[in-house]
Design a protein that fits this description.
This protein has about 100 residues and is mainly alpha-helical. It contains 4 helices and 2 strands. The chain is flat and about 70 Å long. InterPro entries: ATPase_NBD, ROK.
């Protein structure tokens, strides 16, 4: 189990290079040994790869993690500043040869 979760964390680090990875669930929350094994395997997998180290921690929200994450995503979507396209770009004149 630790190897598979560590492999997932390694792939996430290689793909998006996050500064923090939060693992959640009853198995992770109740086993510090498992979390330490995951960290150790990820560290071994990333020895020859030039990425910044990610911090891997156990989540503290327990059963509220899903609903709080959904609320945070909804708030980000609602209050996201609008992105407008700028049409004020410089046109480079074409050269005639």
């Amino acid at each position: 189990y630790a190897y598979l979760v560590a492999l997932l964390c390694t792939n996430i680090i290689k793909t998006i290079n996050p500064t923090l990875i939060i693992l959640n669930g009853p198995v992770i929350e109740n086993s510090k040994f498992l979390l330490n094994m995951i960290r150790q395997i990820v560290k071994q997998n990333m020895l020859n790869i030039p990425f910044e180290p990610s911090t891997i921690v156990a989540g503290e929200l327990q059963e509220y993690a899903g609903i709080k994450g959904a609320i945070a995503l909804a708030l980000q979507t609602i209050f996201e500043p609008p992105v407008t396209k700028s049409h004020n770009y410089i046109k480079i004149p074409e050269r005639s040869i």
